[in-house]
Amino acid sequence: MHLVGREGDGSIGVLICDDDDAIRQMLRAVIELRPSLRTAGEAADGNQVLAEAARLQPDVILLDLAMPQRTGLESLPELRRVAPAARIIVFSGFSMASVAEEAIGLGAVFYLSKGADPDAINDAIEQAAAEAVPGQLRAPQQGRRR
Predict the structure, then answer these.
(1) Residues near 79 by Cβ (< 8 Å), separated by ≥ 6?
(2) C-alpha of 93 from chain center
(3) d(CA 20, CA 110)
(4) From edge to edge, which strands make up the β-sheet containing 60-63?
(5) Mind listing the pLDDT tens digit of every residue in the chain (146 residues)?
(6) Rounded CA gap, 83 and 14, in Å?
(7) 84 belongs to a structural domain
(8) How far is residue 33 CA from its own chain's centroid?
(9) Per the domain annotation, does 142 fall within a domain?
(10) Which three-class secondary structure state does DSSP give residue 89?
(11) What is residue 95's three-state secondary structure?
(12) What torsion do the CA atoms of 103, 117, 115, 51 make, to the nearest 10 degrees?
C-alpha cells in the first residue's frame, strides 16, 4: 500500500480539512509557496476527514472546527486513532482560549487563527511535522524560513 505522507523527496504531506472551498483553495496556494510542503489531499466534512486521513496517512492535518457531519473537535480523537503519526493543526475562526485548550487536549499540536499569515501557517506545518509529542499547548514559533 502506497502512503502519501512523506514522499521520497522528504516533502511534508498536508491534508486540508475545511468545508469552505475558498479556504481550501487558499490553503493549497499557501502550502505551494514552500517547496518542503505539498497538499496530500482535502476533505470538506468531519466524516470525509476521517476517511481521507486513514487512506492517506498524511504528515500533518489542517483541521477546521466548524464542519458538517462531525465537528473538528468531535473528529480529533478518531483522527488520532486512524492516523496516529499525523500531527494535527486546528485552523479555525474560533478565537476562544477554552476552545484552543480543548483542541490541544484532544491531540492537536497547534491552534491557528484563520487570520494567520502564510508564513505562520507554513512554519506551523513544518514545526508540527517535526513535533515529537502532540498535545502541548503553545503557539508556533514565528519566523521566516527559506
Answers:
(1) 49, 50, 53, 61, 63, 86, 88, 107
(2) 14
(3) 21
(4) 37-43, 12-17, 60-63, 87-92, 108-113
(5) 233 444 556 799 999 999 999 999 999 999 999 999 999 999 999 999 999 999 999 999 999 988 888 888 889 899 999 999 999 999 888 777 778 888 888 889 988 888 889 999 999 999 999 865 444 444 444 443 33
(6) 12
(7) yes
(8) 16
(9) no
(10) strand
(11) coil
(12) -50
Give me the amino acid identity at 144: R
- Taken as a whole, the chain contains a residue count of 146
Task: Give me the pLDDT at residue 92, please.
Answer: 83
C-alpha cell at 13: 504531506
CA dihedral 38, 41, 43, 47 (to 10 degrees): -130
> How many independent structural domains does the chain possess?
1
Distance of CA 23 to the CA centre of its chain: 13
| CATH number of the domain within which 40 lies | 3.40.50.2300
DSSP 8-state symbol, 140: P
**Domain range for residue 16?**
12-130
Chain center to CA of 46: 13
Assess if residue 3 is contained within a domain.
no
Q: CB-based contacts of 22: which residues, under 8 Å, 6+ apart?
A: none
Collapsing DSSP to helix, strand or coil, 115 comes out as: coil
